[in-house]
Design goal:
- By secondary structure, this protein is an alpha/beta fold.
- Helix content is 27%, strand content 28%.
- The chain contains nine helices and 15 strands.
- The strands form three sheets. Strands 3, 4, 5, 6, 7, 14 and 15 form a seven-stranded mixed β-sheet that branches. The protein has a six-stranded parallel β-sheet with strand order 10-9-8-11-12-13, with helices on both faces.
- Helix 2 crosses helix 3 and helix 2 packs across helix 8.
């Protein structure tokens, strides 16, 4: 077993887009374990919009990554060494780790990942893992979708949005996606079963919403923020619901953004707007995961992974999230399982 590792450490907080020098790839000794810790050889790093939030010192749901620390991320990997009775070498685990080839994790921050015949680790950890749980709880707990309601999903070809729309169809909703480019829109409709998809890069979102949602919008699963959010909010019905999962279009902004222009409509139309973080539902992860796995086994939920190679490519790869350059759940393959 090697005694050295590679890791990306945060050197400065980005001002706008992530710049050269904000993170540094270093080679350093693997730390020794303390009681209750596990050494994980990383197979996959999950690259997520929240990575950019963690780099900043803004008010957020977790402490920001400290300058000098390894960049935080969800990881899946193989236990190499353990000082906790629950974990033994060779086990596959997932949880909170970092942009690194190896990570020393407290046992409380990881959990075993089961081996499911016919389903890859990338799919179990990636598109059927935390992002699917985010879709599940954000839609079902906050919105309680009813048959015949109109659901609009931004970033519909992304890891969360794609699952949201499919769960919406399972529950009998009419689902309209918003995605960037004809290939993504075709995937959302032809492969995932959405009723329609708006190409925000080549179509006027507002006019297309008017055509596709003549009776208004009952649920807006919001992943993007900005002008797209404004276009959807202005067409929401009385007593409609809006789970606020993300606002990725604003994460690289260097200046504060004004509140939504449609703010008065929240009052006038009695719109329920609720932000949420998937960890809020940790106690129910087991039950939800079983339901998601059943839907996937039945072919009711399809997912797609966008897997990129090499820990050295973490910074350039994560930037694709903020330009729409990924297609599916974005994972960095550090070492093939």
């Amino acid at each position: 077993m090697t005694d050295m590792m590679q890791a990306w450490r945060l050197r400065s907080r980005p001002d706008g887009d992530i710049a050269d020098g904000d993170l540094e790839l270093v080679t350093e000794p693997i730390p020794s374990l303390s009681d209750g810790q596990v050494l994980v050889e990383v197979n996959y790093v999950s690259l997520d919009p929240t990575n950019r939030i963690w780099m900043s010192d803004m008010d957020q749901y977790m402490p920001p990554v400290a300058l000098g620390d390894i960049m935080r991320a969800g990881i899946a990997g193989t236990v190499l060494e353990s000082k906790h009775a629950k974990y033994t070498p060779g086990m596959t685990v997932g949880g909170l780790g970092g942009w690194a080839t190896h990570f020393v994790a407290d046992a409380a921050t990881i959990q075993p990942i089961p081996d499911v015949p016919g389903i890859s680790l990338a799919k179990i950890f990636g598109s059927l893992g935390g992002t699917a749980l985010t879709a599940y709880f954000g839609l079902l707990d906050i919105c309680d979708p009813q048959p015949g309601e109109t659901l609009v999903v931004s970033a519909a070809a992304g890891a969360v949005g794609s699952v949201v729309g499919q769960i919406g169809k399972i529950k009998g909703s009419r689902v309209i996606g918003i995605a960037g480019g004809p290939d993504k829109c075709a995937y959302v409709v032809d492969e995932l079963g959405f009723d329609a998809c708006i190409d925000y890069k080549n179509e006027d979102v507002g006019s297309r919403l008017d055509a596709l949602c003549p009776d208004g919008i009952d649920i807006n699963f919001e992943n993007v923020g900005g002008d797209i959010m404004e276009a959807v909010m202005s067409r929401m019905n009385d007593f409609s619901r809006m789970p606020l999962c993300g606002m990725i279009s604003t994460y690289n902004d260097s200046e504060d953004q004004p509140g939504p222009k449609s703010w008065p409509l929240i009052l006038m139309r009695r719109i329920k707007v609720q932000g949420f973080i998937v960890s809020d539902y940790a106690r129910d992860f087991g039950k939800a995961s079983m339901q998601i796995a059943q839907w996937a086994a039945e072919g009711k939920i399809k997912t797609r992974e966008d897997i990129r190679p090499g820990i050295e490519n973490a910074v350039t790869t994560v930037k694709d999230l903020y330009t729409g350059g990924n297609f599916g759940k974005l994972l960095l393959e550090v070492k093939a399982p």
